[in-house]
Prior knowledge:
- With 355 residues, chain A is of the alpha/beta class.
- Chain A has helices at 54-62, 103-106, 113-124, 129-142, 148-152, 161-175, 191-208, 219-222, 243-248, 253-260, 301-305, 327-339, and strands spanning 12-23, 26-38, 43-47, 70-78, 81-82, 96-99, 179-183, 211-216, 228-233, 236-242, 310-313, 316-319.
- Chain A has a domain at 107-167.
- In chain A, the strands form 2 sheets. An 8-stranded mixed β-sheet of chain A has the order 6-7-8-3-9-10-12-11, sandwiched between helices. A 4-stranded antiparallel β-sheet of chain A has the order 2-1-4-5.
- In chain A, helix 4 packs across helix 6.
- The two termini of chain A are 42 Å apart.
- Chains in contact: A-B, A-C, B-C.
Amino acid sequence: xxxxxxxxxxxxxxxxxxxxxxxxxxxxxxxxxxxxxxxxxxxxxxxxxxxxxxxxxxxxxxxxxxxxxxxxxxxxxxxxxxxxxxxxxxxxxxxxxxxxxxxxxxxxxxxxxxxxxxxxxxxxxxxxxxxxxxxxxxxxxxxxxxxxxxxxxxxxxxxxxxxxxxxxxxxxxxxxxxxxxxxxxxxxxxxxxxxxxxxxxxxxxxxxxxxxxxxxxxxxxxxxxxxxxxxxxxxxxxxxxxxxxxxxxxxxxxxxxxxxxxxxxxxxxxxxxxxxxxxxxxxxxxxxxxxxxxxxxxxxxxxxxxxxxxxxxxxxxxxxxxxxxxxxxxxxxxxxxxxxxxxxxxxxxxxxxxx
Amino acid sequence: xxxxxxxxxxxxxxxxxxxxxxxxxxxxxxxxxxxxxxxxxxxxxxxxxxxxxxxxxxxxxxxxxxxxxxxxxxxxxxxxxxxxxxxxxxxxxxxxxxxxxxxxxxxxxxxxxxxxxxxxxxxxxxxxxxxxxxxxxxxxxxxxxxxxxxxxxxxxxxxxxxxxxxxxxxxxxxxxxxxxxxxxxxxxxxxxxxxxxxxxxxxxxxxxxxxxxxxxxxxxxxxxxxxxxxxxxxxxxxxxxxxxxxxxxxxxxxxxxxxxxxxxxxxxxxxxxxxxxxxxxxxxxxxxxxxxxxxxxxxxxxxxxxxxxxxxxxxxxxxxxxxxxxxxxxxxxxxxxxxxxxxxxxxxxxxxxxxxx
Amino acid sequence: xxxxxxxxxxxxxxxxxxxxxxxxxxxxxxxxxxxxxxxxxxxxxxxxxxxxxxxxxxxxxxxxxxxxxxxxxxxxxxxxxxxxxxxxxxxxxxxxxxxxxxxxxxxxxxxxxxxxxxxxxxxxxxxxxxxxxxxxxxxxxxxxxxxxxxxxxxxxxxxxxxxxxxxxxxxxxxxxxxxxxxxxxxxxxxxxxxxxxxxxxxxxxxxxxxxxxxxxxxxxxxxxxxxxxxxxxxxxxxxxxxxxxxxxxxxxxxxxxxxxxxxxxxxxxxxxxxxxxxxxxxxxxxxxxxxxxxxxxxxxxxxxxxxxxxxxxxxxx
Lengths: 355, 357, 317
């Protein structure tokens, strides 16, 4: 069953959403003015390196950041209700659910997994113990956990990594949330299990008509599973487009760099991966201009001085002065290759493959 | 299983060593005959005295060699007979004395531990859940103060405040009063001040430990997970966070037994409770060795038994200790860190990991 | 029902996510409290050492005060006032029942208490540290024997051992210090052993071994400095524990004869009558004792944090 996508009433709308942490050095701007819309029943992939603010963004929205030291501003509307400045506890375990990266550390090691899945059922849906048990056994079957009855009484350490992640998914499923946030759900798993878990997630998401935010550092993971992809860097949106569009026409140098830094099936043997030079920016004192400029092979003087505005092309938007695929971008790259370095002083080889 | 047996054998060996050392020290450094007979012991010219001396030597096995005496003592000890006291009459036998005194000390210890744990858990949970807030900082300072306040000083302060100034609690302990009841004529109430003295210090020590472990646990992902499931704050603290944070506390609870018994010496003496603590002080002063030896053995045994129980408790609390899996996530680093001496030593010594059932 | 304010403030229970705000750990400092504590310990030590030449009252002099009072016949005569006297400008901490000045008695009492503390710490550190390092470095049978010794000593009820030895031998400063010092060997030794084992596997020691350095040289030049830091943090704690242990012995009437110690002073002031009428006799020394023990504990705590010594030695009594 699928819900009709409701253009008028999207599930989640963020406008200029910001999260900062008070630190001894000043405010760390972890999320710096993000706007996005998530429709019902859709999957949004948020992609970025670690430190890009993707995790903070989602924990901020769900309200799981420590209130002390955290500054939240802008607007975040969930089902039309403003979240910023409000208490979100009522949504926990009912309308919002999360799946964390490492199922070993996110399951309580001293509680039977059955009880951990039953907990929200008993609490929010007021099921009796036997009803809850039956529900959980059903869900375990659904997510492909063999011998579900026996598993109920096992502890997390008695299960394999893949099984644990299935338990995590069961928790999210049991809640039947409107919004499921999956934060790197497969990073800690075996490659062979990764695909199974991702497919399972996508399947149940479609079946239950949930909206899902899939956080990952791997563009390949988001491809084929997300309806739209949002690329983040240094707390800002770099590029945002429907998945097909994005892969057809990567505009932001960062997206492209991210894509080249991970292996792909269609690569020939011994294809050299291109790591992105440099490290993520300091979010307490971020560089002026484009956040990515110091690491960007396209960077020109203006990139260091001014923040590039968001360019909207239909459903596709990006924040770059010299996007790939248009003339300015190509010229910028050629200029940098000719002088051997970018405007920020980053050395590039003349014959470097244009990324 | 093999490990458990090995451990038990180790404990037995340890007790034997302790009893030998104590037995030898007391008999070599002290003068048992003099303690029994008094000045007559030195009167070897008077035939009548000599006769008494000979009789006493025979009665107390003092004519035998030291190893033989130890063997006799040990043989009696394992059957529950703690021997004859080194006093003119030798009455009552040590076993009877212990039987009379032990329950009083036990009651005091149990009350003290209940106070300590009962205070420490909510105290630590409150502090840890608001780590670094004003509440937490105040409670840290308070705990620190109690840890730095010796038993005997705390006893004087509590006695002064609650017994003398406020006059809420009785200042005498009457061994013949019934235990259970809520008036000044019941030992439950008479025990309150001494138990508080031991318990407050313990509570502060436990709080410091448990707070640290709780803060570590509260940073775990599964706490965030529980929160995101909509589990209430209270339930997260007491149901999810507390149990995996108890390891150091349990270790210290067991080790603290011997510390508390040391405290009991002082506290029983100050509050005039005729328990094991006062018994051992009296016995030491009179060089009544069999009594001292018996109490030393009881304390050492209690210490080891509680350590053993603590080991079993780890298994109850952490299912992974039960199945003996060696996987350790951050949350249980505190466990490995604070395991008792025995555990740590075994781990470092034996490169080969023994797999018990 | 929880209040709104509470729910918001404690959404997650801790700043688990503060870790996400990268690299924000505050700089490590010993802090003002440490220096205040150090100041107090140095001050009280100086006072104790210099007590005989300081211009303070004689601790054994009876400062009886007289007042004019009518005798039975109605004449005004000088009559001694019944001590103890309360706190006054003349006697900052009051006097005891024999009209002796409590402040100077407390300062003189510090001499024994601190001496026991320091002698104990030196003994414990020297013997425990040496044994622990030998055990940790050579391992094998030597380690087994030494570890077994530590274990026996730890399983022994400490205070009972102390009163036993003290009553069998004598109650001199040295006997008491050595007895308490013996009790400190095992906990200190265990720490030294654990540290040595850790450091023995570090690169610089292995490098020295590979270069053919003598074992004695390795122990003294490479290991000792690294084991010393955690031991130093522990030593403060040992001094504090020893002072408390001596106090407990004194409280049981089993400490150094003749001279007053803090424990003894507290004992003499803690009978029913004194507490009711002259609580200052007990409370003066209690406050001195408390501040000294607290200062030592606090310094040890801070140093342990500062040097990141992870071993738990709260287990060591």
